[in-house]
Structures are given as structure tokens and as C-alpha cells.
């Protein structure tokens, strides 16, 4: 009977360790990574789509700021390497958006993207409802937003 009792405890301990391991893995993969050097302080982390089981964290850093009469945004990979930097144009109105209103809605911004050269660049949704489109692909961004509006 003693051997059976030890086996039950051993199986229980292994199951507990497995459950704790899975919980820790999910917790770790859902934490926003540390901001790499060179990524602006106001950058938000855009999570890449989930792949199911706990996997390495994936995503990009995005920051926007006002410079002169332009709105610039910079997209960096999870490690801080530059993927894209350029001017963005507001979809709904003319003129630059004041720096105080350049707060990115990270959940909405993850969804819609356009190719600019070799980079897949998101349309930037702001918390105030404005949408910024990369100036280099403004027409493509407008068409994408119009298609999305028609499908609603």
C-alpha cells in the first residue's frame, strides 16, 4: 500500500507542476515586453495575432509625434529595430493633429495595415477617433477604410 501511496503523490506533484508551468507560460507571453533602447517613451506595443499555445511574444512598437506641420510615426519590431518611419495624414480632416491628441488606441491599430515598401504598416487609430494613414500609401489606406465601412 505504501508504494501505491507514493505513486499517487508523485502523479499529483507532476500534475501540479505541469499546471503551474502552463499558467506561468501564459502569464509570461501576455506581458508587454520591456521597451527597447531607441523606442520613444510614448510608444505603444501592438501585439501580433495570437498563435494558440504559449509562444514567444510577438509584436511591434509604434509611436507618433508632431514635428513641424507633420505627424510622424515610427514602427519598430519587438527588439527596437526600425521597420518604418514616415509622415502620416489624418483620414477625416486636413492639417496636423496636436501632439496632445496623438494617443494611440493599440487595440484598434492592430487590425488594418498597408504595405509601404517592405514594411506592413498599420493605420493608426487614435483614442479621439481620428485615423492616421501613411502618407506614402494614403490612397490605399483610404480604399481600405472605405471597404471596411461598406462591409459594416
Short description:
The protein is of the alpha+beta class and 152 residues long. It has helices at 2-29, 106-109, 138-150; strands at residues 44-47, 59-67, 70-77, 82-90, 113-116, 119-122, 124-125, 131-134.
* Count of helical stretches: 3
Low-confidence stretches: none
Helix- and strand-based class?
alpha+beta
Give a short account of the largest sheet: 6 strands, antiparallel
Kindly state the mean pLDDT as a whole number? 86
Radius of gyration: 22 Å
Which key phrases capture this entry?
3 helices; 152 residues; alpha+beta
What does this structure look like?
The protein has 152 residues and is an alpha+beta fold. The protein has helices spanning 2-29, 106-109, 138-150; strands at 44-47, 59-67, 70-77, 82-90, 113-116, 119-122, 124-125, 131-134. It has a six-stranded antiparallel beta sheet. The protein is elongated, with a radius of gyration of 22 Å. The model has no long low-confidence stretch (mean pLDDT 86).
SSE layout and pairing:
Blueprint: H1 2-29, E1 44-47, E2 59-67, E3 70-77, E4 82-90, H2 106-109, E5 113-116, E6 119-122, E7 124-125, E8 131-134, H3 138-150
Antiparallel strand pairs: 1-2, 2-3, 3-4, 4-8, 5-6, 7-8
Amino acid at each position: 500500500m505504501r508504494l501505491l501511496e507514493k505513486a499517487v503523490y508523485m502523479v499529483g506533484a507532476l500534475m501540479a507542476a505541469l499546471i503551474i508551468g502552463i499558467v506561468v507560460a501564459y502569464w509570461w507571453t501576455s506581458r508587454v515586453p520591456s521597451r527597447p533602447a531607441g523606442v520613444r517613451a510614448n510608444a505603444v506595443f501592438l501585439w501580433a495575432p495570437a498563435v494558440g499555445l504559449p509562444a514567444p511574444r510577438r509584436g511591434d512598437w509604434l509611436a507618433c509625434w508632431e514635428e513641424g506641420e507633420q505627424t510622424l510615426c515610427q514602427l519598430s519590431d519587438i527588439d527596437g529595430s526600425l521597420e518604418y518611419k514616415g509622415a502620416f495624414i489624418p483620414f477625416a480632416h486636413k492639417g496636423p493633429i496636436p501632439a496632445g491628441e496623438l494617443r494611440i488606441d493599440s487595440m484598434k491599430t492592430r487590425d488594418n495595415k498597408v504595405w509601404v515598401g517592405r514594411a506592413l504598416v498599420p493605420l493608426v487609430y487614435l483614442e479621439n477617433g481620428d485615423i492616421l494613414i501613411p502618407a506614402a500609401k494614403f490612397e490605399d489606406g483610404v480604399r481600405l477604410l472605405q471597404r471596411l465601412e461598406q462591409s459594416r
